[in-house]
Amino acid sequence: MKYEAHDYQTFATKYIESHPIAAILLSMGLGKTSITLTAIADLLFDFFIVRRVLIIAPLRVAKMTWSDEIGKWDHLSHLRYSIAVGTAAERMKALNANADIYIINRENVPWLIDNFPFDFDMVVVDELSSFKNHQSKRFKALMKVRPYVKRIVGLTGTPSSNGLMDLYAEFKLLDMGERLGRYIGQYRTMYFKPDRMNGPIVYSYKPLPEAEDAIYQKISDITISMKSNDYLKMPELINSRFEVQLSEDEWNQYEDLKEKLILQLPDGEVTAANACSLSNKLSQIANGAVYEDEGAVMHIHDRKQDALEDIIESMNGNPLLVAYWFNHDLERIRERLTLLKIPFEVLQSEESIRRWNKGEIAVALIHPASAGHGLNLQNGGSTMVWFGLTWSLELYQQTVARLWRQGQDSETVVVQHIIAKGTIDERIMKILTEKDATQNALIDAVKAVIRVKT
């Protein structure tokens, strides 16, 4: 297929070519893969600046997305690529193959650094936000070889899904600490102050006044950002809530379990660890079941299954993508759909994803953590239901963007959220909205000013 780049795509490609360090913050659906591959092809064969390129991506993206894009466009067909996933032997064979581009999943970065001579002069980190933890093995491993990399590109649509603290590790990986500091303590001292504390223990930080502007200014020389709505005619995104009401007995059970969980917390401040545990349990209860300490599932209610059944019926056979979070949610959804003799499939394999995009699956079940990044699902449908919510703005937005993206044929994409009224579901929706405001501030602060032809 002939590649006819939009103006913003040409701009982004030129930016990568002219900046040895580039943070490309593109909203989902803007074509970051084709943009980057075009720049790589130019750098390899027009400018002769690089010779071996390493692409680090989420597993499914590494296995499918980059190779699919190379095969899709005529101007990229000459690129030789090798996908280093699978067993250690399979990865080693792929890395020893004669290619221009080597693609590996992010989980195997430490293995790569420890077991293979690092001779890549260009690195592309797809989903830079997955390197936001400066203490993670993948981050530490890549930092060992970062000085040997001549050119590096970081791609993401969600750079600060949990606040500005995320940016430290992401940009240290890019510029080795030149802009935001070499040490996390230095970054915290300069731009943040303690928020929640228990004596000398600090549980969270909040930005100092003017910190956001200062941080954005620091990174602006290597960063461009773009939003889908600015450059594409995107389908209308319709968000709606399908509220379910617990019965008096179910509500009493929810409140009773909630009270017991709170009483189990240690005295003093609520730490991140036990706050996570508490919210996790309450989310399960809101969904209708909860894991007991021994691992058994305690049934609470079927309100969300009932709501999902109503939604499926209203679809009149049109395809529906259902996002679930807990394994017991998946099992209870399976049981209900099987009972109703409604055909469904869990999107776990490449073949199931292809079948969805061909319109062969009426109800598809998807987990955001395993399929939230990079997959193109817009050809299979335009309606999504969140059976259970996630606290992660990044996973939430990425999952929605599987349908709400360039190439979606429908004029509207509908995202429904099944909310148990009065439960923690309502809080999660509120927090996701608040996080979105922080992220949008970053995107807007470094947005590229491009004249787009009208």
User: What class would the helix/strand composition place it in?
Assistant: alpha/beta
- The percentage of residues in β strands lies in 15-25%
- The radius of gyration is 23 Å
- Major pleated sheet: 7 strands, parallel
Q: Total helix count? A: 18
Can you give the helix content as a percent range? 40-55%
Which whole number gives the mean pLDDT? 87
Read across the widest sheet, the strand sequence of neighbours is: 3-4-2-5-6-1-11
Low-confidence stretches: 265-273, 448-454
Total strand count, please? 19
Distance between the termini: 24 Å
The rough form would be described as globular
Descriptive tags:
7-stranded parallel β-sheet; 454 residues; globular; 6-stranded parallel β-sheet; disordered C terminus; 43% helix; 19 strands
Structure description:
The structure is a single chain. With 454 residues, the protein is of the alpha/beta class. It has a 7-stranded parallel beta sheet, with helices on both faces. Helix 15 (350-357) links the parallel strand 16 (345-346) and strand 17 (363-366). The protein is built from 18 helices and 19 strands. It starts with 6 loop residues before the first helix and ends in a 9-residue tail after the last helix.
